[in-house]
Write a structure and sequence with these properties.
mainly alpha, 39% helix
């Protein structure tokens, strides 16, 4: 199967629901997710779950 074949199956929602349950069970205060700035669909996905933009990250190859 191609990745497109899995879209709209709510797999991401199932994963996020489990992540939130896992975090609550362990009394976590936050869930942090990081994606590259070019991953616009991932940003939208996070916002759909109520995540706020939090920080910019920088890296440098040496």
């Amino acid at each position: 199967m191609r990745i497109e074949d899995y879209r709209r199956m709510k797999i991401g929602k199932k994963i996020m629901d489990r992540v939130f349950d896992f975090a609550k069970e362990r009394d976590c205060q936050y869930v942090f997710l990081a994606f590259g700035k070019e991953r616009v669909p991932a940003h939208k996905f996070c916002k759909n779950f109520g995540f706020d933009e939090y920080a910019f990250h920088y890296k440098k190859s040496i």
